[in-house]
C-alpha cells in the first residue's frame, strides 16, 4: 500500500499538476491488468519507505509553490484536450485516496485482532 500511495502522489502532483515527465507513472500496477500494488523483486521495506517519503517531499514542494485555484499544467498526465483540475481538486482527491486506504488498514487490523476503535 505504501508503494501505491507513493505512486498516487507522483501521478497527481509531479506528473499531473506540474506536468513533469516521470518514467513508469503506473509502476505500482499495470493498467488493464488485475494485478495491483506490484512489488519489484528488489523492493524492500526501506526502499519503498524512502520512495514514499521522497514523493511526499516533492508533493509538498509542488503544492507550496502554487495557489489552490491554479490549474494543472498540460503535458504530463493531462493533455491538450483535457480540462486540467485545480490544485485544490487534486489535494482533495489525494485526501480521499488516503482516507480509503486508512479504512482498508483499519478493516485488516480488526480482522486480525478482533478489536474495534471504541
TrEMBL record:
<dbReference type="Pfam" id="PF04978">
    <property type="entry name" value="MST"/>
</dbReference>
<protein>
    <recommendedName>
        <fullName>Mini-circle protein</fullName>
    </recommendedName>
</protein>
<dbReference type="InterPro" id="IPR007061">
    <property type="entry name" value="MST-like"/>
</dbReference>
<dbReference type="InterPro" id="IPR034660">
    <property type="entry name" value="DinB/YfiT-like"/>
</dbReference>
Amino acid at each position: 500500500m505504501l508503494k501505491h500511495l507513493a505512486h498516487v502522489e507522483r501521478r497527481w502532483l509531479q506528473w499531473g499538476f506540474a506536468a513533469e515527465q516521470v518514467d513508469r507513472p503506473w509502476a505500482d500496477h499495470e493498467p488493464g491488468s488485475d494485478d495491483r500494488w506490484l512489488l519489484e523483486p528488489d523492493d524492500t521495506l526501506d526502499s519503498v519507505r524512502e520512495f514514499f517519503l521522497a514523493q511526499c517531499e516533492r508533493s509538498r514542494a509542488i503544492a507550496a509553490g502554487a495557489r489552490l485555484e491554479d490549474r494543472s499544467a498540460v503535458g504530463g498526465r493531462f493533455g491538450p484536450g483535457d480540462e486540467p483540475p485545480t490544485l485544490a481538486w487534486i489535494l482533495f482527491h489525494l485526501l480521499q485516496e488516503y482516507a480509503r486506504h486508512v479504512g482498508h488498514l483499519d478493516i485488516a487490523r480488526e480482522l486480525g485482532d478482533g478489536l474495534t476503535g471504541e
